[in-house]
Amino acid sequence: MTGTGRLVRLILRRDRVVLPIWVLLLGLLPQLYLAGFQKLFTTDAERLEYAHVSGANAGFAGLYGPLSGDSLGELVVWRSGFVPVMIGLAALLTVIRHTRAEEEAGRSDLLRATVVGRWAQLAAALLVTMLSGLMIGLLVTGSMIGAGEPREGSIAFGALFTLSAWLFAGVAAIAAQLTTSSRGARMTAVLVLGISFVLRMGGDISAIGDGRLAWLSWLSPLGWAQKIIPYGEDNWAPAVIALLGTVMAVAVAGVLLARRDLGAGLLASRLGPAHAGAGLSSPLGLAWRLHRGLLLGWTAGFAALGVVFGGVGTSVVQLAATSNEVADTFSKIGGSGSITDAYFASTTGICALVVSLYAIQATLRMRDEEQNGHAELILGTAVGRTSWAAGHLLFALLGPAVAMAVQGAAAGLTFGDPGPVLGAALAQLPAIWVLGAVTVLLVGAVPRFAAVAWGTVAVSLLILLVGPLLEFPQWAMDVSPFTHVPQLPAASFSAVPEIVLILIAVLIAATGLAALRRRDIPA
Amino acid sequence: MSELARKSASSARHVEPERSGGGGGTAIDAEGLIKRFGKVTALDGLDLTVRTGEVHGFLGPNGAGKTTTIRILLGLMRNDGGSVRLLGGDPWADATKLHRRLAYVPGDVTFWPNLTGGEVIDLLGRLRGGLDPRRRDDLIERFELDPRKKSRTYSKGNRQKVALIAALASDVELLMLDEPTSGLDPLMEEVFREVILQEKSRGDRTVLLSSHILAEVEALCDRLTIIRDGRSVETGTLDDLRHLTRTTIRAELTGPVDSLAGIAGVHDLTSADGRVAFDVDADGLEPALRSLVTAGVRSLVSQPPSLEELFLRHYTRTGNGSPR
Ligand SMILES: Nc1ncnc2c1ncn2[C@@H]1O[C@H](COP(=O)(O)OP(=O)(O)OP(=O)(O)O)[C@@H](O)[C@H]1O
Ligand SMILES: [Mg+2]
After folding, report:
1. What ipTM was estimated for this complex?
2. Which among A269, A383, A521 has the least Cβ separation from residue B152?
3. Which of A26, A119, A166, B302 fits a 20 to 30 Å CA distance from A475?
4. CATH label, B246-304, candidates 3.20.20.60, 3.90.420.10, 3.40.50.2300, 3.30.70.260
5. What confidence tens digit (pLDDT) does each residue in A337-365 have?
6. What are the extents of the domains in chain A?
7. Which chain B residues contact residue A274 at CB under 8 A?
8. B129 touches chain A (CB under 8 A)
9. Per the CB < 8 Å rule, is B122 touching A276?
10. Residue B174: which region, alpha, beta or left (left: phi > 0; alpha: psi -120 to 50)?
């Protein structure tokens, strides 16, 4: 591990902007919730009422996890329930960026030719990521204690965040050893994060219903961290599990690293065809080869997600049956629909946000292709820029539609009534396309800032997560396209916002394409 | 541009009819090209004329602007000034139409990691409008490439082969090769030369060859253009350019000589203890020798002009840029 110290400094230098941003943002988010709640409740009675209603909301339980009690601290922990997912994402991206991505770019060869040990790069990446996770935890603990919350609960709360970062740093460390491309490593790690989230969501929703599937949460790394239940039980046993999980993941990654050559993955490459098939003769044919893995992965993932959502939906029905009072209050806050309608409306909303990540990823593939010189190869042949872009954009357009449709159909079928849930899923598409179109505009007009596209999802997510609680003004809520699509099946369908969103998407994408046609490639 | 460059550009010794029509036997005609990247001026009035049917060497130190020029010729980038015609068309406006008639090999090439070399060759050929399967197989054999391997497992040299085969297997009028042999081993470089010479013997294929390898340029090119800091500094045939190079003279003299410094064409003169050393252009050779003889010569060593010396001179001469 010689040279780890120097590599740590190198990473800190390269990430000197990004690292502090995510540490501060994620570490201080609970304070925002705390402030929001303090403003919201003028009396204890109001808080108890809110907790009572929210605790029974299956959609909330899915997104944030279970609400363990009605103290202010527990409410904040519950409302921060999605933050560990974001922390996990930030952690895994950081680790892969400084391990597999470096190796793929060939910079590791340079480094290892100097006096740097075999494990130094992995160790440095993990060290930086885990320290950042620790900083987030300390920020949370410190600020919660500072706000007058109980000491042990605040420490437990910090540990929840820190362990989320550590677990997914470990997951990423393993993923980085498995595949040769950083894209593949990233997808593997994100997939594990997604599965963890879905397992935790399924288990937690079931827990407030009939509890048959509550054990699912225990299969999820996110679930382990959340089982600490700060301010409620302050249960340290799950924290120990999470810690052991982290240590094991890191150890496995270390062993895998020792067994393989630099630049190689564990999954060996086989020989392929010497001639191209008939399909590989157009930009679209190439795009299919480049996108099909991603499309398949997203479709399979969303089919599974749909099955979980649909299955848990039955729990929600039973919940309604056992408690009329809950059903009443629920339909009061959930709009005009029934309790299951509200549930499916919120699961669909989350799915749509996640699928917009896919739309962006598929669109940014164009920029990748430009940066690694592949676009130059294609555009050097008789292929025009528009048809080159069209191949990729077709997948950005239809891929999300397929993923959403499969999710909606799977959820609906599992639940027993496919129509409304499928409709709800498809109704979200125009909002997803708007974010995809914004990505096209960025790639076309300001290619150097194309990665800003990810920020549009972050903003939409933030608006969804904290907007209502912090009582954002309407114009701020309106920034997110997801505010405008009808939340089926809880709300009724209206065509106008859908059509307007589609027109906006077309306009933005067309502007982006026009800019792409006019600029230098590569730029 | 040097005087010679202008001379040779105007002497139209080439009479090959152009397949495309228009342009009167020039495949590439760029004048006063300007390209800026923010504050960096990559091309600063570059001229390049390539005649139909010739192999044209395109040389210059790192960062001189070769790749940038080729990208403008391909319509990938747009010039900020100057004019450019390619195969009788406008490379920016008619890009896709023109690209059916040319093939391009980028300098540092990578492919889609999951596609095999064979798939890449076929794909690029088809996108260009078709390739000759017999020629493809022949080239694969000559370059000793295993087309079944996934691109990510190819070494740099093998990637270069894939790109070359993809370009050479298409029946096109113009080949644009940006440092095509970087990474090839000497044996494969030899194969590359043979293939290009074969192309040349057909008489109607034009090749623009950017290269840093002198031997390659000497073996293949009819004419060449040397650029520096985004400007053309020499253009002409190899013989023209050889004529431009200087002879290095070292002599021991019996008497004093003082007229040398005044002779046009004498450069880098040093003299001490009756020894002189200088470089001299072809035009200055005779007067310089005369004045040496007048002074009385005890011994004399002369080094004949070489292209290498010319290149080194252009590569190292400190200008307003940052030559290496
Ligand atoms: N996209 C770009 N953005 C900014 N500067 C650029 C860009 N492309 C090239 N340059 C600059 O333009 C100049 C010319 O670069 P170019 O790649 O054309 O040189 P080259 O002659 O091909 O060099 P080499 O022999 O190293 O391949 C360099 O100074 C380079 O840094
Ligand atoms: Mg170059």
Report:
1. 0.81
2. A269
3. A26
4. 3.30.70.260
5. 577 888 888 889 989 999 999 999 999 99
6. 1-264, 283-523
7. 116, 118, 147-148
8. yes
9. yes
10. beta
